[in-house]
Design brief:
The complex is a heterodimer. Chain A has helices spanning 3-27, 63-84, 100-105, 136-139, 146-149, 177-182, 196-202, 221-224, 227-234, 237-240, 245-249, 259-264, 272-278, 280-286, 305-311, 320-326, 355-358, 366-370, 372-375, 381-386, 390-399, 411-415, 440-444, 452-460, 462-466, 479-495, and strands at 418-421, 424-427. Chain A is mainly α. The longest helix of chain A is centred in the first third of the chain and has 25 residues, at 3-27. Chain B is mainly alpha-helical. The chains are: A mainly alpha, B mainly alpha. The interface between A and B is medium-sized, with 36 and 32 residues.
């Protein structure tokens, strides 16, 4: 056989082999990182461990079905928060036949109309992948033309609607007109600047339980020998709340079990689900936030090559060894600091994000978790500037007892905000709930201490945000004046 | 005595005794020129500034030469030598070559071999019996180029033919030929046929050489210009920053072009079609029935034009975006393939210009091989690219 013939046979075989291997990656299992067409958005890169989490359509589904499935996966995670925010442009609004004309311009029933993944080039703030003057799609013509309907908006361009601090597409809880008018006269700083939920949380009465002391600890001898750990536990909230060593280290042992059983079932490093057993809401919100979203219950499990072959009618043809070799790599359930896209401290790179990362497992110190734990990883200008800010001064004053409970502002005050559920106050570990657009933070945090106007101006000033609010806002959002003027005009018309 | 066509074929065969496949319009022109020279030396044709005519209709005894003689004789409107070179190189080059190959086999200089591979068509090869005839011929031409003796008119004619078609550097590669330049210059100015042959033949011969030189140069300049264009278009795609899309709401043309699935599909399939056409033009020209259609030069021209179109459609498809991961590999592989193709075109068609600036074009022929090698990963990458688009 000539060299030429051998060469062509090799080339054809190589091509077929490469295509076959890729097809196996795509359909059966294996790492598919090489197939990704572009960098994911900052909000989703944590869950870029399995494609099926978002691409949930069956393999040979048509384009429309694939897109429907994709949008459903968006809603699986985001619908709850959109509902809580009273989504200003909910899907419902665009369903009727009257909205057909608007849908032609921008089909807002689909999340993917404005948010397409893997398109870094056209991804703007808030993972928006259409131009930021997208409001023009519906609000630039006819009776929806805001430049005509509202005299204050005459001559404005549409690219400032969402970026000027006046409007958000989804969450306008702190930006709607009546709210602006009601809060128009608020002073810059409240007479008693205290974050009410934080204050209530810190002064809450713990359930009456027998607090445990050092001598009450039930653990193997080797564990009890670690004096420092024992001391930390004895002064922690867990001991005060009656949680013994076995509560975490021998979760399978019956409550009040004798030492022998505890020793038999002892686990040196309890898994996170042990924390979840008691702190359900915290764990739930953690798994929806940026730190813990890899643990979200809707993250797709690894593909099973055997079952995928069954779909093709080829079930059982793969020997177990090959099926195991083909199986997807098990996605990491926790993020490491090194994977973050934000500036992080180099010495924290190997850290994994779980409960114990911020809450030391024995010295459960929520004060440490509120500031020092954040700064032990985050190394951006906003974080560094915090330690020079008034907010930090107030936090130190609160810790020193010189300011009332809730009077200090820690990282957690704004980013892991306190929420009330069924009369119980807890920490929302989903920082995304009030992170971006930052006006989402106004009602849950800022307004407890500041006036609406001041909060709007401050959050619109990106430089001031970077300086962690050290100084005065250099930006002024006119929406309150405009809302007041419109309300006064409406009042005048009513009087006439 | 061997004919000019046979001598030309022998000289252009490689050192291993295999004949160099005719892939180049230089060889096609040379074949046409050699056939006309054979007719001129047989006193069958005559030329003036306006036309080439048959002066003696008596058959030469060589079937191929007689066929060309008949073709010239029965043409209704007489045309000049340049036109005959063009027509014969486009329509008859392959026939001339095949006929000469048969002649060489009959003389016992070449041996015909046929091979059949599994799943492939039959492959025909011509190999030297012992290489003696080629060595003698090569030595004879070398002697003419080195010595200061008055050469044989046939040798002058053959050297002029090789020189006019820019084949001499292929026959005598390396620095050796550069040292022969003064002698070559002397031969060029020498009364071609000299006193031993009638002046009429000298005129015919000179006309053929001039026509060959003009014909060969003009087309190669066109291909050179196109190759340079191709190289620039590919370099622009490699080096230019991506063309940004306007930050304005609404389906702008560029946004549709580079981010709309449907438009991307159209431009993608157009690129795929063009790439396939480029591949076909490169392979079909070696297929005899196709090679007979217009000669290899039009296949090459089409191939180069398709290459430029590929670079342009690639811009339409990507807007200078290199992509990521497998897409980046596909893009890079495609651009490397285009770039080596363009550089190969420059090295082949600009050989004389490159020699003038001191670059030996022989190593640049390697670019053609790289152009072909860069093609191998493309089918797999393309199929995977399409699979990804439809699967996700």
């Amino acid at each position: 056989m000539s060299r030429k013939a051998i060469f062509w046979i090799l080339c054809t075989t190589g091509t077929l082999l490469a295509v076959a291997i890729t097809a196996v990656w795509m359909f059966l299992g294996g790492d598919r990182g090489m197939l990704v067409i572009g960098k994911s958005t900052d909000g989703h890169h944590q869950i870029m461990t399995t494609c099926e989490t978002c691409h949930a359509a069956p393999v040979f589904a048509d384009a429309a079905a694939a897109e429907r499935a994709l949008n459903q996966t968006c809603r699986n995670c985001h619908e709850e928060e959109l509902k809580a925010a009273g989504d200003s442009h909910s899907r419902k609004k665009f369903r009727g036949p009257r909205m057909a004309a608007y849908r032609e311009r921008l089909d807002a029933r689909r999340c993917t109309a404005c948010h397409i993944e893997h398109r870094p080039e056209i991804t703007r703030a808030g993972a928006v992948t259409v131009a930021m003057d997208f409001c023009a799609a519906c609000h630039s013509e006819g009776d929806q033309d805001v430049r005509k309907v509202r005299s204050s908006h005459a001559g404005l361009t549409f690219n400032t609607c969402a970026s000027g601090g006046c409007h958000n597409y989804h969450d306008n809880r702190a930006l709607y007109e009546d709210f602006l008018v009601r809060r128009a006269t608020q002073p810059r700083v409240a007479p008693l600047p205290v974050h009410s939920l934080s204050a209530r949380y810190r002064t809450r009465q713990l359930p009456e339980k027998a607090a445990l002391r050092r001598r009450d600890a039930i653990a193997p001898e080797s564990a009890l020998a670690e004096q420092a750990v024992l001391n930390q536990w004895a002064t922690s909230g867990h001991a005060a709340g009656g949680v013994n060593c076995a509560g975490c280290h021998a979760p399978d042992a019956a409550q009040g079990a004798p030492r022998a059983e505890v020793e038999a079932r002892w686990v040196d490093a309890p898994r996170m689900r042990v924390c979840e057993g008691c702190h359900k809401m915290e764990a739930r919100t953690f798994s929806r936030g940026r730190h813990g979203m890899r643990g979200h219950p809707l993250i797709a499990p690894p593909r099973d090559p055997g079952r995928r072959l069954e779909v093709l009618g080829l079930g059982g043809i793969l020997p177990e060894g090959i099926a195991a070799w083909l199986a997807d790599p098990v996605p990491p359930t926790r993020m490491t600091v090194a994977e973050s896209r934000l500036p992080m401290r180099a010495d924290a790179a190997n850290g994994t994000l779980n409960c114990g990362t911020c809450h030391r497992p024995h010295a459960v110190d929520i004060k440490r978790a509120a500031v020092q734990a954040c700064a032990s990883c985050h190394d951006d200008t906003h974080t560094r500037a915090y330690f020079e800010s008034t907010h930090y001064g107030l936090w130190q004053a609160e810790l020193a007892g010189e300011a009332p409970p809730g009077g200090g502002v820690s990282c957690a005050t704004c980013h892991l905000v306190k929420i009330e559920r069924r009369g119980k106050i807890m920490t929302n570990h989903n920082q995304n709930d009030n992170l971006r657009p930052n006006e989402k933070m106004i009602r849950s945090v800022c307004l407890d201490c500041h006036g609406l106007g001041f909060a709007l101006d401050s959050l619109a000033d990106t430089g001031l945000v970077a300086r962690n609010f050290r100084g005065k806002p250099a930006v002024h959002v006119k929406s309150i004046e405009w809302a007041k003027r419109r309300a006064a005009a409406a009042e005048g018309n009513k009087g006439r | 005595m061997m004919t000019f066509v046979e001598e030309l074929l022998l000289l252009t065969s490689d050192e291993n005794g295999e004949l160099v496949p005719m892939q180049d319009d230089r060889y096609e022109c040379a074949m046409a020129g050699a056939a006309l020279m054979d007719l001129a030396f047989a006193d069958r044709i005559d030329t003036d500034l306006q036309m080439l005519v048959v002066s003696d209709h008596t058959p030469t005894g060589d079937s191929m030469l007689d066929r060309i003689l008949a073709k010239i004789a029965y043409r209704r409107q007489a045309v000049d030598t340049r036109r005959w070179i063009r027509d014969l190189s486009e329509d008859e080059a392959l026939t001339i070559q095949e006929s000469a190959l048969d002649g060489l086999v009959e003389r016992g200089i070449l041996k015909h071999q046929e091979k059949k591979f599994p799943w492939t068509s039959r492959s025909q090869r011509y190999v030297m019996v012992d290489g003696k005839a080629r060595n003698e011929l090569s030595l004879r031409i070398e002697n003419v180029l080195i010595s200061g003796d008055i050469p044989d008119p046939r040798d002058i004619a053959l050297i002029s033919l090789l020189d006019a078609c820019d084949i001499l550097p292929d026959v005598f590669p390396g620095k050796w030929l550069e040292r022969c330049h003064p002698r070559l210059e002397q031969l060029r100015k020498m009364d071609l046929i000299g006193r031993e042959v009638a002046g009429a033949i000298a005129d015919v011969d000179r006309t053929i050489i001039l026509a060959l030189r003009a014909r060969s140069t003009r087309f190669r300049k066109l291909l050179l210009a196109l190759s340079v264009m191709g190289a620039l278009a590919t370099a622009a795609t490699l080096l230019s920053p991506r063309v940004p899309v306007p930050d304005r709401f609404g389906p702008t043309f560029f946004e549709l072009l580079w981010f709309d699935g449907l438009w991307q599909q159209w431009s993608g399939y157009a690129l795929l079609g063009l790439s396939g056409a480029g591949f076909m033009t490169a392979t079909l020209r070696k297929w005899r029935p196709a090679a007979r259609m217009g000669g290899s030069k039009w296949w090459r021209f089409t191939h180069v034009v398709i290459g430029i179109c590929c670079a342009l459609v690639l811009f339409v498809h990507t807007g200078f975006r290199m992509g990521e991961n497998l897409n980046a590999a596909l893009m890079l592989s495609y651009l490397v393939m285009l770039m080596f193709g363009a550089l190969a075109g420059i090295s082949i068609n600009g050989a004389s210009q490159l020699r003038r600036i001191g670059v030996s074009p022989k190593p640049l022929y390697f670019l053609m091989k790289l152009h072909v090698i860069a093609l191998y990963p493309l089918p797999a990458l393309l199929i995977i690219h399409i699979l990804i688009v439809y699967m996700y």
